[in-house]
Design a protein that fits this description.
The chain is mostly helical. It folds into two domains: about 110 residues, no CATH class; about 160 residues. The protein is built from 15 helices and no strands. It is elongated.
Amino acid sequence: MQKPSDPFAAVENIYTPRQRYLLLVFSLAGLLGLMVMGLAQYLTAFLAAGILFVVFRPVWVALVHQRRWNRRLVTIGILLVTVVVLVVPFYALSSLLLDRLVNFAKNPERILEVVHKVENATGFNFTAQLNVRELLLQGANKVSGWLPTLASSALNFLVVVGLMLFTMYYLFMQETYFLLGLHRYLPFRNETLQDLGEALKNNVNANVLGQVLVALVQGILTGITLKIFSVPDPAFWGVVAFFMAFLPVLGTPLVWGPAALYQFSVGANTQAIGILLVGFIVIVNVDNLLRIMLAKRMGDIHPLVTLVGLVLGVEIFGLIGLVVGPLLVSYFLVLMEVFRRENRLRRESEVPR
């Protein structure tokens, strides 16, 4: 039986093959842009899933590929560890910190009282120059506004965590297809993909595992120091120090420095000097020592890359930007090196022999 002829076969297409190729590329880029815009609110879920995939993959490889454990059970175990060790404690600590900040912001008189005591002790007038009351009231309005936002975003938080866990599940369960897809669809040579993968590994190790370890040690040391020298509520300020430790250069001095000023303001000069000595001699040096040790062991990342990346990442992605920001800067540097290498190879191929 003769197949029916295609009535559109004889119609001439107005585009050249190159034009069709370019239009296809633009169409793909446009659709990808629309997808990213539509998922922008939940982009952190997918970024976090990718980061945790890199963090837990050595455990996955050891248990599934080497010991031949059931991949579904291992994946579910990893998800449970993520929820119990990361999601629940982090949400609880964030809620605690937010509640206490709101209480401080709603009662600026308590902070003004400390400021006036520092003024009396030092003889220098801060209030008139910095308009402390106005700044605190503005901060109170802003922080107080977080409460309805936090309440309204509870469902959004659950959706983000659900998407993250769902994505992690399929990244591990379909690991081979995922990695093959990266090699197939990313427009880079294999050596470039290896460089990008190494940059991702180094950034995750340095800015997740290493940074969390450094922040945890500094938070514990700060809390113990404040308790020894009789600063009120040392556990809370230890939690604040844990979060502040993620900031390069400033870090925990933003916590124990004001604590020393507070002790000076109430006449506890010995305790204040003790806080400053422990802060400068122990906490700061432990921070520097740990960073130097972990920099080589867990990812050789230049401090300037981390600093620029943190500022960039937090502004764009929020908290997850602590990792994504330095990764973006590292990827930019890697791609610049790839660009230099490709141009050198092209020039060498064009040289007549």
